[in-house]
């Protein structure tokens, strides 16, 4: 199965609709700062602003492949910026869920999340999320 193939309906059942994400981004301190920096109401940006964009009022993080691989051309992949309040839900969707998760390891779960979503502390957050997963602990102890 294609890693990036995602069922929108299932995301909706999980409460990860664009509307909910937009609402939660609106309450998130970091997102509020980025929005203000993007629309010019705040001059100081907390991060590298060119990586961020707003589309239909949803905040996206644009991953620049040429920054990681100098031989690659400048390809930008847009990913939805996940506000703090929804991070556990996103990790749970891609790790715990029987259909979309399946308790895969760190790298595979990270790949799946990064097809669509991103946030700055995704790596440490996901590592600690998986290391505290009771189901994974049971599987590995057998
Ligand atoms: Zn697990």
TrEMBL record:
Protein name: Integrase zinc-binding domain-containing protein
Record Pfam families: Integrase_H2C2
Integrase zinc-binding domain boundaries: 82-138
Originating species: Heterostelium pallidum (strain ATCC 26659 / Pp 5 / PN500)
Xref: InterPro entries: Integrase_H2C2 (IPR041588)
